[in-house]
Amino acid sequence: MRRLLRVLSTSAPALLAAALCFHFAMTVAYLTPQNPLQLRLARLISGYMNPFLQQNWHLFAPDPITDTRFVMVACRLREPDGSTTETGWTDITTPYWESHLENRLGPATRLGRSVTGAARMIYTVDPTSLQMAKKLDQQRARAQAGGGGAEAADAQVVDMLRDQVKKEQDAGFQLGKTVLERAGSAHCDRLFGPNRTAAVRLRLAVLKFPRFSRRDLPDAKGELSYYDFDWAPYQPVAPLEAATEDRRQTPVALRAAAVEER
After folding, report:
1. φ/ψ (deg, to 5) at 76
2. I need a surface site. Which of 34, 112, 153, 207 has the fewest CB within 10 A?
3. pLDDT in tens, 141-159
4. Integer Cα distance of 94 and 73 in angstroms
């Protein structure tokens, strides 16, 4: 026993150092832009970092926030006579953050992050993949201008990486869309009662603030754009118990409505 304790006491610092090195190496690999090594080890890196160690560099981004992004939902409801009616759009993002400001220890933050995280998976495009695509197109254009022939080896590698990046983006898009549809179904149940919703439709809205030179203008004078999804079947989910109330105002939704009225 003493020998075992002696071995453990002498090897513990080395084991701890190795564990820390492995952790920081995986974190660096997770946060770096898309590259061949990251793509090759994507399953290992993602399995280690998600979901408890997931992070990003947004806190240290060199560009300040220039817009507000939020999710809206419309519900297709079943009527007693067998017909269906479609509701208007409801902002389901802003109430979470308002609830978080009132109760920092409540569940609103976790619920809100699940919605905004899913939305980010849909509209985020990796800049490295765009650079890969641009480089590949330029190489192919030069090859065609030179009379064709076999593609260069590096072009074939870029093509393979481009396909892999697209697969990852497609998988992220599908996962984000599924999460949003489930969140929309839960909100339709909360707004109109259970067993009434037949289908849900999601909308991603982006409200760009007026530029700094026009900082005297209210946010509602900014540019508002939408990305609408198709109607999706209702998905039964657990009741939504977020700390939100119908009496609360939704400033972002009100700003969006003001922009639409212009």
Report:
1. -100, 115
2. 153
3. 777 676 655 455 556 666 6
4. 12
